[in-house]
Design goal:
CATH class of the largest domain: Alpha Beta
Oligomer: single chain
Largest sheet: 9 strands, mixed
Number of strands: 16
Number of helices: 13
CATH superfamily of the largest domain: Periplasmic binding protein-like II
Helix content: 25-40%
Shape: elongated
Distance between the termini: 29 Å
């Protein structure tokens, strides 16, 4: 390399900038600052219990994708042979793509990435579970090619650096999971909470486990005369936004704050923790604790039943899917922006304390490589096999076929500038 950009001082400056910027968005050392301005690390996440299968992309589709990637300039000569673990004879698409966001999606993303890279080992996808709020910010700022988010990106937010001028963000629902109300209370294995009582516990109005309101719902439980420790998310979290939306919609007189990805209440018994895993560990390692987390991350902790249309309902994939199926799509300016307006009150037999998590992508990308990759990867995520992978590895509820087809149609609409 010649010129000032190749001097040791310039390289040190770029390395320093890479370390500062990449660490800030969740990529740990050693970050690599790619020439198109994104962070990368050679780490392929894996999920516990991920099934081992052969290539997941059918040959005709693979041939079509090879042509698409070649046209987009993503077949990098000699690159695949230099990647660790990639056969020297590999001539498929290659590239590195970074994403970040929802910690609820972490296990599902690991399953999807694993399956995709079985077919295309020259493609490296780095997903950092920094939380939905940080993931959306990283996407808007152009540090990632897509975001995982448990709350949809608002219309008009931007401009988004990776997107072409005038492009919009598309929210693609790809992951459905109940939110479990997890607890660890000495001598208590079963717990029932109606919306008003749950809201009063989580806003600090009810502060002891043997409070009359809890006792009335659980007459057979040996509730201790002990303070309640509420474990909540400390980071901006789509899980928090979904949880507080449920409380606000079902008990507005008790949970008076508007739904938010930031936990609204501060009181002596509140304990903030980072990510779903932080909440789970806080509940597990504490005493007389209660919290909320993506059910796939609940880790065997006890969970409360909720009251829906006069019936007590435990979380399940089927009950969560029933709540989503009963909910309409929101009116959005772009027909391919697929935001679901969840009905938090029913129907009977459903579990409306649920999150729908999105892949947030550009309707049109500046870089044809990004568009080619997202078109294929998101199609795989929304495919029957992709949804089966996440259900097996992450315990999520597969998309209904009608919803999955709408997602795939939205993915086919993604374009590139020029």
């Amino acid at each position: 390399m010649s010129g000032a950009s190749g001097t040791p001082r310039a390289r040190d400056a770029r390395a320093s900038e890479a370390h500062t910027r990449c660490t800030a968005v969740g990529f740990r050392s050693p970050p690599v600052y790619l020439d198109w301005g994104r962070c990368s690390r050679r780490v392929v996440p894996t999920a516990p219990h991920t099934a081992t299968r052969g290539p997941v992309i059918a040959l005709p589709r693979a041939r079509a994708l090879l042509a698409t990637f070649a046209a987009a300039g993503l077949l990098l000569s000699g690159c695949a042979a230099n990647e660790p673990g990639v056969d020297a004879d590999y001539d498929g698409p290659s590239g590195r793509f970074n994403a970040s966001g929802s910690s609820a999606q972490e296990a599902a993303q690991a399953a999807w990435i694993s399956g995709y890279q079985e077919a295309y080992p020259g493609v490296t996808i780095n997903y950092s579970p920094v939380g939905s709020g940080a993931g959306r910010a990283n996407f808007v700022e152009g540090w990632t090619v897509y975001a995982g988010s448990d709350a949809a990106l608002d219309e008009g937010e931007g401009p988004m650096v990776s997107c072409a001028d005038g492009a919009t963000a598309l929210n693609l629902p790809v992951y459905i999971s109940p939110i479990a109300v997890i607890f660890n209370v000495e001598g208590v294995d079963d717990l029932r909470l109606d919306p008003g009582t749950m809201a009063a516990v989580f806003n600090g109005t009810i502060g002891t486990w043997n409070d009359p309101a809890i006792a009335a719902l659980n007459p057979d439980a040996a509730l201790p005369d002990a303070p309640i420790t509420v474990v909540h998310r400390s980071d901006d979290s789509g899980t928090t936004e979904n949880f507080t939306e449920y409380l606000h919609d079902t008990a507005p007189d008790v949970w008076t704050e508007e739904p938010s990805d930031t936990y609204a209440y501060r009181f002596a018994g509140a304990d903030g923790n980072q990510g779903n895993s932080g909440v789970v560990e806080g509940v597990r390692n504490g005493r007389n604790t209660i919290g909320y987390a993506d059910a796939s991350r609940a880790g065997g902790l006890s969970s409360a039943q909720i009251l829906v249309e006069g019936e007590w309902v435990s979380f399940s994939d089927e009950a969560a899917a029933a709540a989503v199926a009963a909910s309409p799509f929101a009116e959005r300016a772009d027909e391919h922006d697929l935001v679901i307006e969840l009905d938090r009150t029913g129907p009977a037999g459903s579990y409306p304390l649920v999150l729908v998590s999105y892949m947030v992508v550009c309707s049109e990308y500046r870089d044809a490589r990004d568009a080619a990759f997202l078109t294929d990867y998101a199609s795989w995520v929304a495919s029957e096999e992709g949804q089966a992978r996440s259900a097996e590895s992450a315990g999520s509820a597969p998309l209904a076929e009608a919803t999955a087809e709408r997602v795939r149609a939205a993915v086919r609409s993604i374009g590139a500038d020029g």
